[in-house]
Amino acid sequence: MDDFIEDSYLDTAVGVEPISPRLDATSPNSAFFSINSDGSDEENDDWIDVKKTELPTNDNFMEELRSTINETDCDAGMIRKILAGRSLTPDADDVTELRKKIWPALLGVAKREAKEFTCEPSEDIKKFFEETDLPVGSINLATFFAQSKGLQPKNWIYLVVPLLQLDMTPSQQYTILHPIATKLTPLHEKSLHFASESILVLLQYHEPELSQKLSDLRVPLNAAFSPFLSSLFAVAKSQAIMSLWDGILQCNDPILPIFLIVVLLINSAEQLAEAKCTQDVVSQLTNCLQQMESDDIPDFIELAINYRDLSPRSHLEMRIMPLFTARPTSDCHESILCAEITASEALLSIAGDPSCLPFVLFDVRTPDAFNQCHLHSTMHLEESVDGDKLLAQLEHHIESLQMPPEETHVCLIGESKNDPTVISFVSQLLKKRRKYLSIINGGFEALQMHINSSESQLDPYQWLIEEKQTEPSKPTSKFFSSFSNFTSQVSSNIKSSDFGAKLKAGFEKTISEAETSLGLGKKNLNRPYRKDPPMFSIDDESEGSDNDEEQLNMEAFLHRKDIKGNWNATGPNNKKFILALSSSQMIICAPCADQKWAKIKARRPLSTITRITSKKKCPEIITFRYTDDTKDTFHLEEAGDATREIKRQVVAVLDALGQTGDAK
Q1: Domains, the chain, ordered by start
Q2: Nearest CA-CA partner of 630 in 659, 661, 598, 605
Q3: For a Cys-Cys bond, which of 251, 296, 513, 584 suits 20, CB 3.0-4.6 Å?
Q4: H or E stretch covering 378
Q5: How many alpha carbons fall within 13 Å on the CB side of residue 142?
Q6: pLDDT tens sequence across 249-307
């Protein structure tokens, strides 16, 4: 089975080409398996073409949403599934009533009782409302929240503006305001400052050329980002702010606003090049938000998710996510040169963990330190004062791995934390606009410590390559000592008449002593060596294994971000399978006996699925037919959900490829 490349993004509007390879038409038909409940291989009137069923469109998903809210008691999972990243239709008559139910459900406070509160408006907050021309109807709400959290009146107050449009009581508004302010925004000043700085680090990781241009402006950009982060973009007073919050609350990801600002900066690169002060940057970002319409929000959020998924996971978890908690860690309050990853993520990347980016690791320590001990799968990068030569050396190594240099994520390994050598390498590569550049936090010392720790359960001999030391000479074994005695004995009796008998006896004695010293005597023939069973035996029964099949950890695989769903399936001979749906493929897996690992039996590109049919008398039996006239048939307990999600993704792939008309 050919290996196919997974692609999580099918949005061609943003210039991302979907990867959905087709099966070679010249390859022989090799259906994974094929069964039929009535023994016939032909389709007849009993079969229903599931793929022809219409998918919910932008016009009718609102009706499905209304029905689901009433039937499932506003289940957050069902709401996210129906909306699928879309915003509510702004001109719907009941859009306000829907948001009053949907927003609390997405925030997990739908069943929380709203307690009434009373408080006197603060003079400072009154003054802030007057200066910013905010609606006075939310002064009490802002005052109560500021007093409960010990906050000064700043841009976070803009959070109450979208809540006023919901026409709710102040206590109900507070129930929504609290989780938004404490979980989706960096509430405290210090956290807000470092969250703004993290935007520049991420911009440097993805667009180093733009990052350098903005740095040359000598404008404190981090001060420009704070109003948008603390108010969740409400400070811009955009007409699409309600739709934007629809999308942000669906994602329920506190760091998403940071990547939304990254997208705004990249799209406003030309205008920002002329900025003279912080207010110019704020004005430009505000203009971008004010020009957005509700229909632009899904693409806006999809781009931000794209950049998030192309960022080092441990950098986000270690440096950014704690900023959105009540007690940020000390690590996230440190200024850093570039993106940093942990030793754990580096090792997981080498092991091929799908939840990590595929890093190429370069060791930038001295040649002596590298030769003494280094990590498997790493290459040494020689120091050079010429940045062009250094970049050429790095790209040459990457090309030798048959990887595209410009799209490869590179991680540098120094000796320890704040190693001046790795800082020099990073500076030179950033000057040459090298993107996707990171370092290991703690350097090689952190790698060694993690590998040798008992918690990692890693074998240092498999992960580290150490310089071999000259082994001391071993003492002469008993066998050679016995042989020397034997030759002396033979020499002393060389003239004896019974030389032949003595020669034979001497050999037998010497061999016997050698066998005994090696544990090969007759009484030890059937004993296991060092109490271990023999590795090979004539009577051993061995089962062959298919080493060509790709094995994976099921828990890690099914939690990948590009996996849209998975379902248990039954094949012929009652064999168990799992169907996993990604953005471009249907992956057929066979679980192993321990249920933790599985083997990939087939990868079916969604663009090759021509028909999905089911039996009228047994709708759980589903058949998938492909462009090469092969088919797969399964018994699915959740056939309805499975076929609905698969056909939804098939249509999305065909739409992205401009081949909707080709589907039968």
Answers
A1: 12-53+550-662 (2.30.29.30), 123-331 (no CATH), 337-466 (3.40.250.10)
A2: 605
A3: 584
A4: strand 378-380
A5: 29
A6: 999 899 999 999 999 999 998 888 888 888 888 899 999 999 999 999 999 999 999 99
